[in-house]
Amino acid sequence: MPTAPQESPPPKRRVRAAPRLFDGQDLTDDRFFGPPHGLFSRQKIKAMAGRKLIGADRDLEDSQFQPASLDLRLGKEAFRLRASFLPGRGASVEERLKSLEPERLSLAGEGAVLEKGIVYLAPLLEHLDLRPSLSGAANPKSSTGRLDIFSRLIVDGSEAFDEVPLNYRGRLWLEISPRSFSVRVREGSRICQIRFRSRNAKQNSLFDFALPDKDIRRRHEASPLVDGDLKLREGLIVHIGLSGARYDIVGYRAIKNGNVIDVDKSAGYAAEEFWEPIRARRDGRLILDPEEFYILASREKMQIPADLAAEMAPIDPAIGEFRVHYAGFFDPGFGRGADGRPNARAVLEVRSRDVPFLLEDGQPVGRLVYEKLAGAADELYGATATSNYQGQGLKLSKHFRDYRNA
After folding, report:
1. pLDDT of 87 higher than 80
2. Pairing label, strands 183-185, 261-262
């Protein structure tokens, strides 16, 4: 008898691999890094870490992820330099560093004191493996600026500070130079922060991503960005606030013979030991002395919408020979009051240059430049314990207890 034909086994069903997730996001989906382009918000920076575009010698901490930036941490050592430098095209930071024969400082354990007036260079714990469409821009943290610590990011092959080029792969280094106070730092201390920008092919050669004035005006008309009149000049014009009732404190000037400040110690120091208060005058004036460091505040209150970020631009030389606010990004959500209106002043770090300079209440001192996010942030400034300056008026860094207003 003929043998009955045997049935073929049913074809095996291909089981689709489960998507690799990071913080609930599908990291296998390239569309997450596609349009719309712009600055990355917190969730996209987290996805970069999940895809190893951001790596670190020590696990990243959740508190490093800010609404539109990532806090960077000092590594295990620092080097005392004779002079600042940039490596230049085709050269590495490490090569240039060796040629300077620097003195090494260990930042392990209790760390080391960085003396004011000296330049140091420290490798960071974080490193990058960016894509051709991604670049980075760094800035000192707000608390760093308010301590008058001058810091700048350096990468291999760089010809400019604080810039990470498209497709960069390598280590990150931080130049640090305390100006008014000597400071103690250690491995893991957070001095600066970085933003990441996604670009399309047409934007690869661009350097200016600022929101145009006409768009700023449109946004202000829909929901106020400042509590007063909107003044625009390639960004929002910021004015100095020096008026107040008699004896009101309108600013602070650094006392340069203060003790060492531990950058990781919050509310650990009496403000009067480090800062001289500046009281309001009837004429609303203040003379800046050359090379003195001041903490002042804007006259206007402001807020940053959830889909924008901002940065204080360098002062226009036509306005005056002094420098204002060289630290800190303005994250989405900054200054938003409970009623949805502007509720925070910009604290300004001010240094006059070569000659005394007279400031008057209401004088323009800088420009707040806005830039679009590549999608609204999933967490706004003020929502976490690390938001030290939400709703601020004139405010020193988090390291100081309130000044005695007496």
Report:
1. yes
2. parallel
The residue type of 110 is: E
Report yes or no: 350 and 324 within 8 Å, Cβ to Cβ.
yes
Q: Which two tokens stand for residue 330?
A: 């303005």
Which domains occur in the chain, in start order?
Answer: 21-203 (2.70.40.10), 213-401 (2.70.40.10)
Give first-to-last CA distance, the chain, whole Å. Answer: 113
Return mean pLDDT, the chain.
86
Q: Comparing C-alpha atoms, which of 294, 276, 285 is closest to residue 363?
A: 285
- At residue 223's C-alpha, the angle toward residues 219 and 227, to 5°, is 105
CA distance 25 to 41: 14
Residues with Cβ within 8 Å of 14's Cβ and at least 6 positions away in sequence, in order, are: none
Neighbours of 41 (CB within 10 A): 28
CA 198 to each of CA 163, 195, 283, 304: distance values in angstroms, whole numbers, following the listed order: 14, 10, 48, 20
Buried b (16+ CB within 10 A) or exposed e, 116-137: beebbbbbbbbbbebbebbbbb
Q: Of the ranges 130-144, 152-166, 360-374, 378-392, which one carries the lowest mean pLDDT score?
A: 378-392
Q: Read off the tokens for 17.
A: 């691999």
Class of residue 9 by CB neighbours under 10 A (exposed 0-12, middle 13-18, buried 19+): exposed
Report d(CA 345, CA 299) in Å as an integer.
7
CA atoms within 13 A on the CB side of 37: 12
For residue range 180-223, what is the model confidence (pLDDT) as tens digits? Answer: 999 999 999 999 999 999 987 666 665 668 899 999 999 999 99
- Count of Cβ atoms closer than 10 Å to residue 387 Cβ: 17
pLDDT of residue 256: 84
Cis before 11? omega within 30: no
364-372 and 261-262 as β-strands: parallel, antiparallel, unpaired? Answer: unpaired
